[in-house]
Design goal:
The chain has 124 residues and is α+β, with helices and mostly antiparallel strands. The chain has a single domain, classed as Roll (Nuclear Transport Factor 2, Chain: A), CATH 3.10.450.50. 29% of the residues lie in helices and 44% in strands. It contains 4 helices and 6 strands. It has a 6-stranded mixed β-sheet with strand order 2-1-6-5-4-3. The longest helix is centred in the N-terminal third of the chain and has 12 residues. The N and C termini lie far apart (38 Å).
């Protein structure tokens, strides 16, 4: 799906503007570290906390009963703004708009335990 390719490319580019453009107006992100926030606020905060990072797509799942519901499984080689590597495997549960051209809601699922202390130190 074109919008999902653009979303991952925006993450790789570290572009808040491109990332937010993947979302419908009012789109939200549910993150284990940042909570539930509008996409327009989440991505500027994420990239302010990050150095250049990279995604590697592993799988794309589409709900056979509702093609608006998808899951992206990927490796996020996240680097914190202080240069600390904080890589993790993640699944983003995504609800697309009715025409599947934008993201309405994105729920990020991963184990935060291995990187929580480094993330906390880097933010302060």
């Amino acid at each position: 799906m074109e919008i999902l390719d653009e979303y991952l490319a925006a993450l790789d580019a570290g572009s808040a503007e491109r990332s937010v453009a993947c979302f419908a107006p009012g789109g939200e992100v549910v993150s284990p570290l940042y909570g539930t926030v509008p996409a327009a606020r989440f991505y500027p905060t994420l990239f302010a906390d990050s150095a250049p990072s990279r995604t590697t797509l592993q799988r794309l799942y589409v709900d056979p009963d509702d093609p608006r519901e998808v899951a992206l499984a990927f490796r996020y080689d996240w680097v914190l703004r202080d240069g600390t590597p904080a890589p993790f495997d993640v699944v983003d549960l995504i609800t697309l708009t009715h025409d599947r051209s934008r993201i309405a809601r994105l729920v990020i699922c991963y184990d935060t335990a291995p990187l929580a202390s480094a993330w906390s130190r880097a933010r302060h």
